[in-house]
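Protein modeling request. Please complete all fields; requests missing the sequence field cannot be processed.
Requester role: graduate student
Desired output: 3D structure, token encoding
Chains: 1
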Amino acid sequence: MPSDNTPLPVQAQDLCLLVYAPFGDDYALSRYPGDNTRWRDHPLLASLSEVAASGVPVLAMLDLPGEPTRLLQIDPAAPAALREEICWKLDMAAAPSLSGLLQTALARYPGKRLALCLEGHGSGYLPAIDKAGLMHLHELGRLGDWQRAGQEQAPFDASGRSVYERGVPTLPGGGPTLPGGGPTLPGGGPTLPGGGPTLPGGGPTLPGGGPTLPGGGPTLPGGGPTLPGGGPTLPGGGPTLPGGGPTLPGGGPTLPGGGPTLPGGGPTLPGGGPTLPVSHASMPTWVLGQALAAGLQGSGSRLAVLHLANCFNMSVEVLHTVAPYADAASGYCSTNYFSGAASYPAVFRRLAQAGSTAAVTLAGWFVEENHRLLSQRGRHPLVGGALELRRMADVTRGVEQLSDALLQELRTTRHPRRSRRRIESAVVKAQQYDTSGDLLLEGPDQLTDLHSLAHCMARDLEDWPEVHTAALALCRALEGIKRVGDIDSPWMDDRGEIVWDFTDPHLAMNIFLPDPTRSGQWDWRTPFYVDINPGQGPARLQVGVVPFLQETNWVEFVREYHADTVFRAISVPGLFTVPTARHGVRPVPADRLVPGQRAARQAPVPGPIARRVATMLAKDDPVDD
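Delivered output (625 residues):
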């Protein structure tokens, strides 16, 4: 007899499939596989009709660019018929949109168990940002209050301005650098090296006396034109931002003396509104939990299966958040390749043939059938897994124990620098997942496989007994979650020179580890991640914080690990090539796909972060402060 907390088996006749497809800001996913401009031609609809033909009713929320949001219903009695309901235009990143889909399914199919597939883009942990609070800080000129990571409850002076232990760097010539990025003098324009004053209207004068044009923008020597908004166009074509600040090619300027780099449009830019990367962003992690709670409230039910069909969302932060609301979950630690749900019919054919199966088995079939589909095409390497979500209690406990053991070592050792280098060595050896867009699985990527990290620490830090014991316990908590893991070159690499090796058995789920190699480059999410008690300062910056960050000491470890790291830059990755499934991609020779082998590739070889770390780890200072 199963125990009280064992999920009940799933039967096809008891199930309803829900699909949440927020494609409204992505033309590649919306028009996949070619250039479909009619929503009825999207292959997602054909796939879901096949699911209904197997006896499982389907409800899908579909949002495409330039189209109203649609609720689509397909019943097994007439799988070729599609019932369409216009829902105006919904904010698909807001909780009511998803909770409304759940409530509709419970009302239309009472007694049915729900399987929910989340399509679109994923990112692992994604903060739920209070943009009004962020704008308030911007208006007060205190954007640095959240950009300086590591101070969850920073001290504040009498005026409410936060006080930081480290000084603020200055520009040559004396202009102060604000923590938000750009050096701002009264009037709004930056002072360039050499001491050019700020003129009314915000435009700086360049050495040599360039005149100020209407709107505040200077004329550069050589005739650079002024664009609307006042900013100069620099040689090389860098655009200008409203407010007059110049932008260097590739994004925001790097300030001499260690000021943060603000690449590609955010998180904040002097003189303009605080912009955040929103293109292709999935629902924030905390909001996802709220949506599931609201959608299932009062029903006394849980999702049978939650399939995270998007990239990176086989994440400890995400899985811990959704654990109270579903029996089992599955997803992908790294990249998944969008295929318009082409593998879903095979999942439900397996269920119909089996008659019934455990919820975790059904969750695993979503990953396995997607893997089968993509493996036939080649150059679509996956790593994915499935688990009963009640296991997340053991995983969370394991993270807490490992964090405590690492903190104890770092806070009591006589050689803190050497201890941080040893931890960093384990981090570098652990499996990383690409978040920077360069396709290289190494720092500065900031999603680390939790099982791989625990395994490397158990192996390399054996002489730290508490760390060793805690790492082994976490490994045990994560065993058996991985279901598929390939070795191949992703099709996004035109040359086929980069190989992703996911064959290691010690893979399970990712965890957000900001700046893993302590280079001072912080992912844009980091300030929110370490702010586990939002609202302590002069403005509230988050709507809510995922429970994982408040229930463990993982954030405390992240801070201690970076205690001697100088903050240099906030990084916001550019838009990736959208990983859709592709036909006809030229295969990579088999002799280059050897487990553990790094493929030959164009410079840098190896990556610049890996070379820097290797050089640093080769040093073993006899005296350590």
